[in-house]
Amino acid sequence: MNTTRFIGISLVLALVLGMSALSFAAGPAQTDQPASTGKTGKFSMLSPEKQEIAKKLHGEFRQSTAKARESLTAKNRELRNLMSAPSLDEGKIQTVAKEIADLRATVYLARISMQTKLAKEGITFGHGSNAGKGDGHSKRMKRKEKAAGKPNGFH
Q1: CB 50 within 8 A of CB 123
Q2: How far is 98 from 76, CA to CA, in rounded Å?
Q3: Residue with more model confidence, 54 or 32
Q4: Domain residues for 61?
Q5: 3-state SS assignment for residue 104
Q6: Residue 16 carries which DSSP code?
Q7: Which pLDDT band, with edges at 50, 70 and 90, does 139 fall under?
Q8: pLDDT score, position 155
Q9: How far, in Å, CA of 114 to CA of 129, rounded?
Q10: Which terminus of the chain has fewer CB atoms gathered within 10 Å of its CB, N or C?
Q11: Positive or negative CA dihedral for 53, 54, 59, 61?
């Protein structure tokens, strides 16, 4: 009796896990909302005109930082190799680490420049490019602000 019960429960569990694996393999559900269709990515909530501006500026950013990003990948690989070498050359490691920091700064400044241009066009994404809904404040924070007599969103 216990063996058949164990086999039955195991089969049901395997079926449930198999079905959940299939649902994960299928990817996210598609809805009628433009943001979830994946056709235009993070710019999908913008008007078509703003999408074109955003795509253009993002393309310029990608093109202008391509060499720096390629170098960054190569330098990170070089640093990993140096760190895993049998004998560590601390001077070389420091030099490569500084080069990585400089490349990151170059890409970051270009990103800020792009975001500034986007903002001048009236295109903002809130707190990070995947800000989603809301203004970055939790319900709890809003209740605290309200209780303190602060207008919504002001600290």
Answers
A1: yes
A2: 11
A3: 54
A4: 43-119
A5: helix
A6: H
A7: low
A8: 44
A9: 12
A10: N
A11: positive
**What is the torsional sign of CA 54, 126, 109, 104?**
negative
Residue 53 maps to a domain? yes
**Inside any domain, residue 28:** no
Q: Which two tokens stand for residue 81?
A: 């190799």
Distance CA 22, CA 31 (A): 19
For 135, which DSSP code? -
Q: 68: Cβ–Cβ under 8 A, 6 or more apart, which residues?
A: 103, 106, 107, 110
Q: How far apart are CA 50 and CA 122, in angstroms?
A: 8
Phi/psi of residue 100, nearest 5 degrees? -65, -45
Structure tokens of 43? 């710019």
78 found inside a domain: yes
Helices (H), 34-89: 48-83
What is the residue whose two structure tokens read 């602000």?
A: 145
Q: Is residue 102 part of a domain?
A: yes
pLDDT, tens digit, for every residue of 35-94?
Answer: 444 454 677 788 889 989 999 999 999 999 999 999 999 999 999 999 999 999 999 999
pTM above 0.90, yes or no: no
Task: Please report, rounded to a whole number, the percentage of residues in the chain having pLDDT higher than 70.
Answer: 63
Flag whether pLDDT at 18 surpasses 90: no
Structural domains in the chain (count):
1
Element (H, E) at 138: none
